[in-house]
Amino acid sequence: MSDTGGEWQVARRRKGASRSSKSLQVSAACGQEPLDVGKTVKRIRDTVSELRCEDFWHDWKEQLLVAASASLSKSPADKDAEDQPERITKTCQQLECVCYGLGPFASCVSARYQLAMLLLLLEAGQIPLKDCSVYDPVFSSGERDVLRDLGLTVLSENEEGKRLVEKPTFFYLMHCGKALYNNLLWKNWSARGLPLMIIIGNSFTGMRERTIEKEFKRDYSYISKAVDFSVERKLACPSHLIDVFNDTAVITFPSNSLNGLPQSTWAESPEPQYQHSPDLEIILKETRS
User: Fold this and answer.
1) What does each C-alpha distance from 19 to 40, 140, 200 come to in angstroms?
2) Within 13 A of 110's CA, how many CA atoms are on the CB side?
3) What does the alpha-carbon distance between residue 224 and residue 210 come to, in Å, rounded to a whole number?
4) In sequence order, what are the beta bridge partners of 252?
C-alpha cells in the first residue's frame, strides 16, 4: 500500500491543500471545531477546476451523455446528426440525480474528488443542482451545510438505497457497498423500472469477479442477475487518481434487453435480508424499539 500512500501525498500537495487537509482530519476526528463552510466550498470548487483540465474527464462526460441519450431518448435513431448534441442535452435535463455514500469529503481527499466529479457531470448534463439529492449517514452537520451551499439537496433519511424510481434518474454511487446497489435494483426490479436508471459506480462485473460465486448469488441476487443483461461502459481512470475512480463504469439497462427476458425474471422479488453477510459495507438506518 506504500504506492497508494505516495499517490495521495501528490494529490494533497496540489493547490497547497496539504496543511488544510490535515487540519480538517483532526477537526473531524475530535468532532469539536466547526467546519469552515466557505473555505471547504472553495476547496471543492478548486478541485472541480483541477478535474476539468484532466483528459479523462472528457471521457466521463461523453459516456454519461451517450448513456442518457441511448437509454432515455425517444427520438428516432436516424435523427439528423446536427440535432444530436441538442437532443442529448435536452435528454439529460430530464434526469434527476441521487448520490449515496459519498463519504466525509471535508476530511477525505478521495471523497472530495468524487464530489467534484459529480458537480462536473451535473454541469455537463445541465442537470439543475437542486435536482440532485445527496445522502451519507457519515456527513457532519458542517458537510451538510457545504452541500446546501453548493446548491444540492441533502436528504434527511437513510433510504439504504431503496428508492423507487418514477422518472429517469442518474445514480452516482462511487465505491458504495454491494448491499446498496442490490437494494436499489430490488426496489426497481421490473422491465419498466430498471431502464429508467443510469448508474455511475462500481462495475457489476468486477463485483462478481471479486466475490465467491455462492455468496454473490445468495446475498446479492439482484446484482448477480443484472450483470447478465445490464450494459457497462468502463470509465477512464488516470494512475494518479486510481484510488478515487478505479473500477468505475456507466451502467444502463436497455429496454430491448429486458423485454426479451422471461416473465419469471420478475415473478419473485423478495426484499434482501443479508442474514449471512456480517461485513455488509452499508450503514443501516436506526430502528427504534
Assistant:
1) 13, 21, 31
2) 16
3) 12
4) 198, 231
In angstroms, the Cα distances linking 31 to 35, 199, 267 are 10, 33, 48
Write the DSSP assignment of 61-126 as a string of letters.
HHHHHHHHHHHH--S-TT--GGGHHHHHHHHHHT-EEEEE----TTT-HHHHHHHHHHHHHHHHTT
Q: What's residue 5's pLDDT?
A: 39
Instruction: Give the residues of the chain that fall short of pLDDT 50.
Output: 1-32, 74-79, 81-82, 288-289
* Spatial separation of the C-alpha atoms in residues 108 and 179, rounded to whole Å: 23
Cell of 206: 468486477
- The answer to whether 243 and 111 have CB atoms below 8 angstroms apart is no
Residue 107 CA to residue 110 CA, distance in Å, equals 9
| Overall pTM > 0.85 | no
Question: Hey, which residues does 249 pair with through a beta bridge?
Answer: 201, 234
| 14's grid cell | 496540489
